[in-house]
Protein backbone atom coordinates (compact mmCIF):
# COMPACT_ATOMS: atom_id res chain seq x y z
CA UNK A 1 0.00 0.00 0.00
CA UNK A 2 2.77 2.47 0.94
CA UNK A 3 4.50 1.85 -2.40
CA UNK A 4 1.28 2.63 -4.33
CA UNK A 5 0.85 5.89 -2.42
CA UNK A 6 4.48 6.78 -3.04
CA UNK A 7 4.03 6.19 -6.79
CA UNK A 8 0.98 8.49 -6.90
CA UNK A 9 2.69 11.39 -5.12
CA UNK A 10 6.29 10.78 -6.15
CA UNK A 11 6.65 14.05 -8.11
CA UNK A 12 5.41 16.01 -5.11
CA UNK A 13 7.88 14.43 -2.67
CA UNK A 14 11.14 16.32 -2.55
CA UNK A 15 12.79 14.25 0.16
CA UNK A 16 12.30 10.90 1.86
CA UNK A 17 14.67 12.02 4.60
CA UNK A 18 14.32 15.01 6.87
CA UNK A 19 16.14 17.31 4.45
CA UNK A 20 14.46 20.64 3.85
CA UNK A 21 13.61 22.18 0.51
CA UNK A 22 16.21 24.94 0.60
CA UNK A 23 19.00 22.41 1.28
CA UNK A 24 17.95 20.37 -1.76
CA UNK A 25 17.82 23.49 -3.93
CA UNK A 26 21.10 24.85 -2.57
CA UNK A 27 22.87 21.58 -3.35
CA UNK A 28 21.36 21.37 -6.84
CA UNK A 29 22.35 24.97 -7.62
CA UNK A 30 25.91 24.62 -6.32
CA UNK A 31 26.48 21.17 -7.88
CA UNK A 32 25.24 22.43 -11.26
CA UNK A 33 26.99 25.81 -10.84
CA UNK A 34 23.80 27.67 -11.74
CA UNK A 35 23.41 31.20 -10.45
CA UNK A 36 20.08 32.58 -9.25
CA UNK A 37 18.41 35.86 -8.37
CA UNK A 38 14.89 36.56 -7.13
CA UNK A 39 12.31 39.29 -7.72
CA UNK A 40 9.52 39.14 -5.17
CA UNK A 41 6.37 41.15 -4.75
CA UNK A 42 3.73 39.41 -2.60
CA UNK A 43 6.27 37.12 -0.87
CA UNK A 44 8.30 40.16 0.20
CA UNK A 45 11.69 38.45 0.41
CA UNK A 46 10.61 35.12 1.90
CA UNK A 47 12.09 33.17 -1.01
CA UNK A 48 15.44 34.89 -0.65
CA UNK A 49 15.33 34.30 3.11
CA UNK A 50 14.76 30.57 2.55
CA UNK A 51 17.58 30.32 0.02
CA UNK A 52 20.12 31.96 2.34
CA UNK A 53 19.43 29.28 4.95
CA UNK A 54 21.69 26.99 2.88
CA UNK A 55 25.38 27.27 3.86
CA UNK A 56 27.44 28.12 0.79
CA UNK A 57 24.56 29.61 -1.18
CA UNK A 58 26.60 32.80 -1.64
CA UNK A 59 28.50 31.07 -4.46
CA UNK A 60 25.31 30.93 -6.57
CA UNK A 61 22.72 33.32 -5.09
CA UNK A 62 23.52 36.75 -6.45
CA UNK A 63 20.66 38.88 -5.14
CA UNK A 64 17.06 39.18 -4.12
CA UNK A 65 14.94 42.22 -4.97
CA UNK A 66 11.60 43.04 -3.39
CA UNK A 67 9.90 44.85 -6.26
CA UNK A 68 6.61 45.61 -4.59
CA UNK A 69 5.52 48.70 -6.51
CA UNK A 70 4.94 48.98 -10.25
CA UNK A 71 7.70 51.60 -10.33
CA UNK A 72 10.17 49.15 -8.79
CA UNK A 73 9.12 46.47 -11.27
CA UNK A 74 9.77 48.89 -14.15
CA UNK A 75 12.89 50.61 -12.84
CA UNK A 76 14.71 47.72 -11.17
CA UNK A 77 13.86 44.68 -13.31
CA UNK A 78 12.61 46.18 -16.58
CA UNK A 79 8.98 45.08 -16.52
CA UNK A 80 7.39 47.12 -19.29
CA UNK A 81 4.82 49.79 -18.53
CA UNK A 82 2.75 48.35 -21.37
CA UNK A 83 2.60 44.95 -19.67
CA UNK A 84 1.58 46.49 -16.35
CA UNK A 85 -1.05 48.70 -18.02
CA UNK A 86 -2.51 45.93 -20.16
CA UNK A 87 -2.36 42.92 -17.81
CA UNK A 88 -1.74 44.39 -14.34
CA UNK A 89 0.93 43.71 -11.74
CA UNK A 90 -0.71 40.41 -10.86
CA UNK A 91 -0.55 38.51 -14.14
CA UNK A 92 1.34 35.71 -15.84
CA UNK A 93 2.86 38.26 -18.20
CA UNK A 94 4.24 40.36 -15.34
CA UNK A 95 5.56 37.27 -13.51
CA UNK A 96 7.38 36.18 -16.66
CA UNK A 97 8.91 39.63 -17.21
CA UNK A 98 9.92 39.82 -13.55
CA UNK A 99 11.74 36.47 -13.69
CA UNK A 100 13.52 37.31 -16.93
CA UNK A 101 14.24 40.86 -15.81
CA UNK A 102 15.91 39.90 -12.53
CA UNK A 103 17.98 37.19 -14.25
CA UNK A 104 19.18 39.60 -16.91
CA UNK A 105 19.84 42.58 -14.62
CA UNK A 106 21.68 40.30 -12.17
CA UNK A 107 23.43 38.30 -14.90
CA UNK A 108 22.25 34.97 -13.50
CA UNK A 109 21.19 31.69 -15.10
CA UNK A 110 17.94 31.67 -13.13
CA UNK A 111 15.38 34.29 -12.17
CA UNK A 112 12.52 33.40 -9.82
CA UNK A 113 9.62 35.79 -9.28
CA UNK A 114 6.32 36.10 -7.43
CA UNK A 115 3.48 38.54 -7.85
CA UNK A 116 0.07 38.22 -6.27
CA UNK A 117 -2.63 39.42 -3.92
CA UNK A 118 -1.87 38.35 -0.36
CA UNK A 119 -4.85 40.17 1.16
CA UNK A 120 -6.81 40.75 3.19
CA UNK A 121 -7.91 43.46 0.76
CA UNK A 122 -7.08 44.21 -2.84
CA UNK A 123 -8.89 41.32 -4.48
CA UNK A 124 -11.51 41.50 -7.21
CA UNK A 125 -13.79 38.96 -8.84
CA UNK A 126 -11.27 38.54 -11.68
CA UNK A 127 -8.23 38.61 -9.39
CA UNK A 128 -9.20 37.34 -5.93
CA UNK A 129 -7.17 37.44 -2.76
CA UNK A 130 -4.83 34.45 -2.87
CA UNK A 131 -4.10 34.70 -6.60
CA UNK A 132 -0.35 34.37 -7.17
CA UNK A 133 1.77 33.96 -10.27
CA UNK A 134 5.26 32.46 -10.03
CA UNK A 135 7.71 33.16 -12.83
CA UNK A 136 10.78 31.02 -13.46
CA UNK A 137 13.45 31.86 -16.01
CA UNK A 138 16.19 29.27 -16.58
CA UNK A 139 18.77 29.88 -19.31
CA UNK A 140 16.29 31.52 -21.67
CA UNK A 141 13.26 29.34 -20.90
CA UNK A 142 10.34 30.89 -19.02
CA UNK A 143 7.63 29.05 -17.10
CA UNK A 144 4.77 30.62 -15.18
CA UNK A 145 2.64 28.87 -12.59
CA UNK A 146 -0.72 30.20 -11.38
CA UNK A 147 -1.80 29.56 -7.78
CA UNK A 148 -4.98 30.15 -5.86
CA UNK A 149 -3.93 30.10 -2.22
CA UNK A 150 -6.18 29.83 0.81
CA UNK A 151 -5.93 31.45 4.20
CA UNK A 152 -4.81 34.75 5.62
CA UNK A 153 -2.02 37.00 4.33
CA UNK A 154 0.77 34.99 5.96
CA UNK A 155 -0.64 31.71 4.66
CA UNK A 156 -0.81 33.06 1.11
CA UNK A 157 2.79 34.29 1.31
CA UNK A 158 4.00 31.01 2.81
CA UNK A 159 2.16 28.85 0.24
CA UNK A 160 3.52 30.99 -2.60
CA UNK A 161 7.07 30.73 -1.24
CA UNK A 162 6.97 26.96 -0.84
CA UNK A 163 5.35 26.46 -4.24
CA UNK A 164 7.91 28.72 -5.94
CA UNK A 165 10.79 26.85 -4.33
CA UNK A 166 9.27 23.50 -5.21
CA UNK A 167 8.80 24.58 -8.84
CA UNK A 168 12.47 25.58 -8.86
CA UNK A 169 13.47 22.20 -7.37
CA UNK A 170 11.53 20.29 -10.02
CA UNK A 171 13.02 22.33 -12.86
CA UNK A 172 16.54 22.00 -11.47
CA UNK A 173 16.19 18.24 -11.44
CA UNK A 174 15.21 18.34 -15.13
CA UNK A 175 17.94 20.74 -16.30
UniProtKB/TrEMBL annotation:
Alphabetized Pfam families for the sequence:
CinA
InterPro entries documented for this protein: CinA-like_C, CinA_C
- Ranges where the CinA C-terminal domain occurs: 20-170
The identity of this protein, by name, is Damage-inducible protein CinA
Amino acid sequence: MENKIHQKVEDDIYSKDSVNLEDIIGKLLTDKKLTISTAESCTGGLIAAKLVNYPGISSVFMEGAVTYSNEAKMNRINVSKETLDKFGAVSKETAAEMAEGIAKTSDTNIGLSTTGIAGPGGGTKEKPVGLVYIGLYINGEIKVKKLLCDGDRQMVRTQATITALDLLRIELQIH
